[in-house]
Amino acid sequence: MVEPRLAALVGGVVSALRAAGRTPVPVTDVHGRHWAPAYVLGSLHPEAAVRTRGLDRQAVADVVLDGSGRLALDHPVLITGGALHPLPVSCPSLAESYEHLIRGVRIGDEPLGGPIFLSTDRELMIARPSFGARPLDEYLIGLIQPAVHVASES
């Protein structure tokens, strides 16, 4: 019940991103297999960055979604560039994060198993500490407008 709705929503957002000329990043799994490219939306959190190899660093993105209908929240991405202007260059597969997210979806008027829930009116909702609960489609559409930016430390 939830997966087809989420896949349709993510597919619509991916179409809008493509139409807007946004460029996805490559996605690989731990075995080096390539998956559907992904779009990084929202903020990159450099405080989660760790030095890996060369100039690449890892950060956490608010939202990552791919053309196969998967969505992941707080997903790691590899970035390059300075601390004030990081650029996502790739990310690990969304499969595990997506499965975890889907398993946490519950029906109710508040999040019980995870940040995404299906309201009693059958609307996909998201709850985040920064804004409370709101429709998932509105949240994702709002993230299309701005490019990825660095989260300011509080």
Structure description:
This protein is an alpha+beta fold and 154 residues long. The chain is 23% helix and 40% strand. The strands form two sheets. The chain has a five-stranded mixed β-barrel with strand order 1-2-3-4-5. Strands 6-7-8 form a three-stranded antiparallel sheet. Strand 1 (25-28) and strand 2 (34-51) form a beta hairpin. Helix 1 (2-19) runs parallel beside helix 3 (136-144). The model is unreliable at 51-55 (pLDDT under 50).
Structural class: alpha+beta
Query: How many β strands by DSSP?
Result: 9
Helix/strand order: HEEEEEHEEEHE
Unreliable sequence segments: 51-55
The best one-word shape is globular
* Rounded average pLDDT: 85
Strand content: 35-45%
- Write out the strand line-up for the largest beta sheet, numbering strands in chain order: 1-2-3-4-5
DSSP helical segment count: 3
How much is the radius of gyration in Å?
15 Å
Helix proportion of residues, in percent?
10-25%
Largest beta-sheet characterization: 5 strands, mixed, barrel
Cα end-to-end separation: 38 Å
Outline the fold blueprint:
Layout: H1 2-19, E1 25-28, E2 34-51, E3 57-66, E4 71-80, E5 87-92, H2 95-103, E6 116-118, E7 124-128, E8 132-135, H3 136-144, E9 149-150
Parallel strand pairs: 1-5, 2-9
Antiparallel strand pairs: 1-2, 2-3, 3-4, 4-5, 6-7, 7-8
Helix pairs in contact: 1-3
In short:
The protein is of the alpha+beta class. It contains three helices and nine strands.
List keywords for this structure.
154 residues, alpha+beta, three-stranded antiparallel sheet, 9 strands
